[in-house]
């Protein structure tokens, strides 16, 4: 695939305006200096412990996420449009979540088939009629953006359950500022270091009761979770306690934290645990990482969970095709950011098209994540395609299909030197009394030549994301 949008170059010899100063600086750097800086970055990341665990790695090894020192740069005008589109989208998703757990107007109006909601594994009937603070369900959303064609931005998917990656956004920026301080003198780059403050303000604003100084905690499943570094990092950056289920208890429908000074009431829980494991009395009885009675306290308005129970129904890939309709229905606006065209294999005609064009399509499990459970047709063998065909036929409602987009590429340092590699972007949208977005997000890069899979679990790396200020 060679016909893709290059972030830095408009043609092999023409540099895009907003990359001009950086390109000039880069061309003046000796290869030895760049190699030394890359080695220094890897050493620092390893010392700090910025690692992740890979699902299915039986040896329990933790890995560094490869970090590339060529930033992804977005000009101010493009960011203005992206930001408006992200705010519009997440606002509509929150309205949708409130609606399906209350009046269900979007279902009654036939915009979305009711069975798409009620048969969804992430729909939580227990949440029906539960009123939550600010009617906000997705306090933290990670929206995956890709660029294709002549440079148009598309939303690839919405992550509303426990979106991760923001710690790498922050650490990548710290690393770039440490390695190349002169670049930050030459460029007007929007800061991201205030994200933990924005996150804490968002969480505090979501407290159920009118409390002057709400207590916020980060709830982690523990150190063996693949994103544990991020849990600990964000708690430390916000100046709040990192807790596990055993550190909390419920009494008279209030949540308390065990401390050396006695029980302390908890008002807001930034939970990094999936719904099923939150409360063994209400969900999975075998959960050893949840808090018995937590749902009762939540239902009675005595604690806020961020994100809310039941948000997963809105980031399921079978619901994704309806988000533009949500925007029109709830906001009476046209979507600023478009979806990628999507075929729903639950529909007979879409299934037929998908099966007939598997070598050309990307097919995903509706509940899949992390780059698992998907087929990239152009990069797959005939045997892999035929095996996946059988899976789709056996459970068509479990899959969607999309065209294989020519994702934009950014020059990246690889073993052979500087070469284009495909990228995406995950901005983080915070919804409380207002909707806030730290400028930029996490740029992920597919380090394997020709690969379109950017997930770290599949060999991807990350870049710093620069939003240039006017």
Automatic annotation (TrEMBL):
Annotated ranges, domain Circularly permuted ATP-grasp type: 71-446
Pfam families associated with the record: CP_ATPgrasp_2
In terms of SUPFAM superfamilies, this protein maps to: Glutathione synthetase ATP-binding domain-like (SSF56059)
Region forming the signal peptide: none
- Write down the superkingdom of origin: Bacteria
**Protein name (record):** Circularly permuted type 2 ATP-grasp protein
Task: Give the species this sequence originates from.
Answer: Sapientia aquatica
